[in-house]
Structures are given as C-alpha cells and as structure tokens.
Amino acid sequence: MHVDIVPVGDLDRGVKREASTALRSIYDCEVSVHDQQNIPDGSYDSSREQYRAEEFIDLAKRVGSGGKNIAITPNDLFYHRRNYVFGLAYLGGSGSVISTYRLHTSSDGGFSQRSAEDIFSDRVRKEVVHEVGHTVGLEHCDNKFCVMNFSPTVREVDQKNESLCGSCQRDAL
Ligand SMILES: [Zn+2]
Ligand SMILES: [Zn+2]
User: How far is the CA of 87 from the centre of ligand 1 (A)?
Assistant: First the structure.
C-alpha cells in the first residue's frame, strides 16, 4: 500500500512527520508527502465559519498519488449535522481527511504529566491511522483502546492506543 499525505492549507512540518511515521509503523506501507494544496474553493461555510470535510477528501483523491490519499489540514471541519469532525473517510475509499484544529485542546484525558506537544502529536498519529483504517475497510471497533474506536472528543482519542487491536489487524489484511 502507498499512502500519499496531502497537506491542505498552512500545515506544520511536525504534523507531516508524525503522520508519516505513524502510518509507516502501523500499516507497514510506503508514505509520501504531497506538495501543499490550497483550501478547496467553495468548501467554506461562512455561517458556520467551518469547512466541509467532503471537499477535502475529494481534493486528496484528485491530486494524491497513492492508492490511499489523506488530506491533513489545520482548518476546522464539519460534516452534515455534526458540529465538528476530527476526520472523515468513506469505508473502503481512496481518500480521507483529518483536521488538527481541535486536537490542540488542552484536556488531555489524564495524561497531564506530558507536554502539550507530545499530546498533540499523539492525537495526530491516532487520527491519521484511524481514517486510513476506514479506507482499508475497517469500521468502528468496540475496543476502547483500539485506534478504530470512535472518538467524538479528545478525551477518547487520548484513551486509545495508536495501534489496531488484534481483530482489526486481521480484518485490515
Ligand atoms: Zn471513524
Ligand atoms: Zn479494533
């Protein structure tokens, strides 16, 4: 598998590095980082002051050079009726997206002895592994430590591991 990371908007170098390392270590795949892309035209909803997640997935699919392509953006995303999303992917699809916007929040699920950067990096890693997991056919997992567990808030993100549980690992192959 080859995953192309497509930075959209002004994305930190550290984020690209963390995302690459996590994807390589969990999926044992080839990872490349695409040139930075502009925010997709028309993706901004001015009444919500947020961006439509679907349009970032479309962009990643359009420009990405991988079998799987993940957009990563610092901009705040929403999807349909959900107030915000950390990320979005279609099951078995070739594109996905994560937003780092809400991963900076200070609540850290009880790991307060760790630095804010460490906590943020961990969240980025888990979110990319999670969304790419959907694209390799994985649905949400009931195991709260599995990276495929659904995490509506950073608290749940912090509680889970970066890796797939045994059952998801078997299903991903
Ligand atoms: Zn999910
Ligand atoms: Zn699992």
Answer: 7
Q: H helices within 29-115, ranges in order?
A: 53-63
Catalytic residues: 131
Ligand with the closest atom to the CA of 141: 2
Is residue 146 within 8 A of residue 168, CB to CB? The reply is yes
Distance between Cα 133 and ligand 2 center (Å): 10
For residue 150, the ligand closest to its alpha carbon is: 1
CATH topology of domain 2-172: Collagenase (Catalytic Domain) (3.40.390)
Q: How far is the CA of 132 from the centre of ligand 2 (A)?
A: 13
Query: Quick one: which H or E segment has residue 162?
Result: none
**Model pLDDT for residues 51-107, shown as the tens digit of each residue:** 999 999 999 999 999 999 999 999 999 999 889 999 999 999 999 999 999 998 766
Alpha-carbon span 17 to 90, nearest angstrom? 24
Q: Report pTM.
A: 0.95
Q: How far is CA 172 from CA 75, 125, 139, 169, in A?
A: 29, 18, 10, 5
Question: In the block, which residue shows the tokens 């200070």?
Answer: 106
| CA 14 / ligand 1 centre spacing (Å) | 23
With residue 18 as reference, give the H or E element that holds it.
helix 13-27
Show me where the domains of the chain are located: 2-172
